[in-house]
Design goal:
With 119 residues, the protein is mostly beta strands. Helices cover 0% and strands 53% of the residues. It contains no helices and eleven strands. Strands 2, 4, 5, 6, 9, 10 and 11 form a seven-stranded mixed sheet that branches. The protein is globular and about 50 Å long.
Length: 119
């Protein structure tokens, strides 16, 4: 079972920056894609960024140009660099890895890290 541990959240003012980290318990990044999700109070969890096992990235429109996902396969770590933060970015951020194997879906989540953007 893959374990994911996020860190790097905190409180910042609008316009500030944070870098989130997600460390996996095993080397999976060269086999599976990783994603960052977030969930604000009263809202559904939404996917904000992803990186495939080949390194291709994609982003939710509202974070394009501000967020950047990257990975360090040697450290089993995926990052989310968040710049120009806005109050609406306030949420708990989760990393996720998922794949299909023999017709069964596997999906693992971290415990989440809180990001608060407020003046």
């Amino acid at each position: 079972q893959v374990q994911l541990v996020e860190s790097g959240g905190g409180s910042v003012q609008p316009g500030g920056a944070l870098r989130l980290s997600c460390v996996a318990s095993e080397n999976i990044f060269d086999r599976y894609g990783m994603s960052w999700y977030r969930q604000a109070p009263g809202n559904a969890r939404e996917r904000v960024a992803g990186i495939t096992h080949t390194g291709t990235t994609d982003y939710k429109d509202v974070v394009k140009g501000r967020f950047s996902i990257s990975r360090d396969t040697a450290q089993n770590t995926v990052y989310l660099q968040m710049n120009s933060l806005k109050p609406e970015d306030t949420a708990i951020y989760y990393c996720n890895v998922g794949w299909w194997e023999a017709g069964q879906r596997y999906s693992y989540w971290g415990q989440g890290t809180q990001v608060t953007v407020s003046s």
